[in-house]
Structures are given as C-alpha cells and as structure tokens.
TrEMBL record:
Pfam families: GST_C_2, GST_N_2. CDD domains: GST_C_6, GST_N_3. Coiled coil: none annotated. Residues 1-82 form the GST N-terminal domain. It comes from the Bacteria. Gene3D superfamilies: 1.20.1050.10, Glutaredoxin (3.40.30.10). SUPFAM superfamilies: GST C-terminal domain-like (SSF47616), Thioredoxin-like (SSF52833). It comes from Castellaniella daejeonensis. This is Glutathione S-transferase.
Length: 202
C-alpha cells in the first residue's frame, strides 16, 4: 500500500496511528508530497482528483480517500475493532466526526493567517472557527470522564490527532486550561507507541 504523506497533516497522522494500532504500518509505503489550497501536486492529483491528503493506494491499485475511508479500509485489512460493532459503532463515528470538525476549523484558522494576505484577513472568520473548535472540546471534556480507561477506537484516535495538531499550530490557544479532564486523558493516550511513532513535525 502507498500512502501520500505530509509530516504536518493531522488527517494523515490519524491514518498512521490506526495503521500502527492494527499492525499494518510496515505494509505502507509513505509517499511525501507538498500540497496546499494554493498549490497542487500533479502526482497526487493523478490518484485523487481533489488532490487532498490522505490518499491511500491499495496493493490492487485502487485509490482511497479521505481519512475516514482510509481508516475504515485499514480496519478491515487488519481485522481490527477500531470501528466497533453494535451500538458502540455510532458513538465512535460521531466522536470521529466531532474531532475531524475540530481539525476542519483549525485548518481554516491557519489558512486565514498563513495564506491570506494580511490586508484581506477576516478576524471574525478566525474567531468563529475557534468558537467551533472550543465548543467541540467542551463536549469532549464533558464526556471523557465516562470513557473506559482502555478505550481505543477511531473516535479517540481522531481526537488525539486533533489535539496534537492544536499543540503544533496553536500553542497559544491553551486548550488544556479549560479542559483538565481532556488534558489528562490526552497525556496518557499520547504515550501509546502508535502516537510516539507518528509525531507531527513542522
């Protein structure tokens, strides 16, 4: 399998964490590419017309995208339970959507500051995205105390990816202060070998 890769992509990291947890990491070839809203990779666009990360090319040559599809494929390939059966499935998938929403908001915040010329930046846009991210963090803070200590599914993997991206790109946000329960959970989860093997690098 080939995974188009960027060391700063939290969505790619989500897939790599899943691959490590499923014992599939050594079967994946990483193909580094540079892509952003203002510049595309011709190589990546050949396999994904949206030119977005992550994109996984299977051993059979089929291209899969986005991170949710890639993670579900990896879970099937590894015979895992990152997407639980029964009622737990929907809780895990909703948590994945909520965590991915934090990432969506964070990326829009970053693009507004890094890519848009200063005279065209819209402070209210960033503030609204930050409010969305903080609202989602608040929901996780209210829920985390009820999670099993050994919870491991696609929902918490997506959440860990989102929190680590906030640490990388928005250290001034101080998400830990208002969310002590979530901070304690992340401090523990972040020690997993799958997390240590996939650290985001600017």
């Amino acid at each position: 399998m080939k995974l188009y890769y960027s060391s700063t992509s939290p969505y790619v990291r989500k897939c790599l964490i899943a691959a490590h947890e499923l014992g599939l990491a050594d079967r994946i070839e990483l193909a580094p590419v540079v892509t952003m809203p203002t510049a595309h990779s011709p190589e990546l666009m050949r396999d994904n017309p949206l030119c977005k990360l992550p994109t996984l090319v299977t051993d059979e040559g089929q291209a899969l995208y986005d991170s949710r599809v890639v993670c579900e494929y990896l879970n099937d390939q590894g015979g895992g339970a990152l997407i639980p059966a029964g009622g737990g499935k929907w809780a895990a998938l909703v948590d994945q959507s909520l965590a991915d929403g934090i990432l969506d908001a964070a990326l829009l915040m970053r693009y507004e500051v890094v890519l848009r010329p200063a005279e065209r930046q819209w402070p209210a846009w960033r503030e609204t995205q930050e409010e969305k991210a903080c609202s989602a963090l608040g929901q996780f803070e209210r829920a985390v105390g009820g999670w099993p200590a050994d919870r491991l599914d696609i929902g918490v993997i997506a959440l860990a990816s989102a929190l680590s991206y906030l640490d990388l790109r928005f250290p001034d946000l101080d998400w830990r202060g208002p969310h002590p329960g979530l901070a304690a959970w992340f401090a523990d989860f972040d020690q997993r070998p799958s997390m240590r093997a996939t650290v985001l690098k600017a």
